[in-house]
Specification:
With 218 residues, the protein is an alpha/beta fold. The chain has seven helices and ten strands. It has a single domain, classed as Rossmann fold. The two termini are 26 Å apart.
Length: 218
């Protein structure tokens, strides 16, 4: 079974104990739809800003077309490069463990890309308005004309005081069409999944091709 098949199986089963992948922190229903979109695009380069344990990163890197997968997160709070390489499947796995919101970090990404565009960018780091805006303004310009950007947590529940991604998403004037991937089964109001609180969810999608539009309910 390929890593992509393993990832799909893990998504379908809700990440059973024998899965080789760390469990993602996003809703599995929304992540499965995101994976379907990306499989159709056949991205070669992916960048994830905000990796944590690496569950989503490993799934994205399992897409067969991916050659370079870059993870950005703070040191001490996210899986290390060695940990990601032990479970992720792209030929080149790189982990940059420093503040995403600096020009120095962006330059490291550009060095790894070596002139290539980003085909798929996922932003899911600091959720304050200015932080999301900074991540977007730094890395979205590196996405190619056929690329796609995903911004997580655009649907916010009433008690999510520190999550302002929804405001950023509403204000964003994107270079491409805007779409959304949202599981309507989750809030508002404040809800729980498997014993932990879900205060925000949903992917905002910027499609540089201009093909994806509107909201997809999953």
């Amino acid at each position: 079974m390929s890593n992509l098949d393993s990832a799909a199986t893990a998504l379908e089963k809700g990440f059973c104990e024998d899965s080789n992948f760390p469990e993602p922190q996003q809703l599995l229903s929304e992540l499965s739809e995101l994976l379907t979109v990306l499989e159709g695009r056949q991205p070669e380069t992916i960048v994830e800003v905000g990796t944590a344990r690496g569950g989503t990163f490993c799934i994205l890197s399992a897409i067969p077309s991916v050659n370079i997968a870059i993870s950005i997160d703070l040191p001490g709070v996210a899986a290390t490069e060695n940990e990601l390489q032990s479970v992720a499947d792209a030929p080149t796995i790189r982990a940059i463990r420093q503040d995403s919101q600096t020009v120095q970090t962006k330059e490291k990404v550009e060095d790894i890309l070596d002139g290539r565009d980003i085909d798929a960018l996922l932003i899911d780091a600091d959720h304050h308005y200015d932080s999301v805006m900074t991540d977007y303004e730094l890395y979205a310009p590196l996405v190619g004309s056929n690329g796609i950007v995903f911004v997580h947590d655009i649907v916010v529940h009433d008690r999510a005081d520190e999550i302002e991604v929804d405001e950023f998403w509403t204000d964003l004037e994107a270079d491409g069409t805007k779409a959304e991937i949202v599981d309507q089964a989750y809030g508002p109001p404040f809800v729980k999944r498997d014993g932990w609180n879900i205060v925000a969810h949903g992917f905002g999608v910027v499609d540089r091709r201009g093909e994806l539009k509107g909201r997809t309910h999953v």
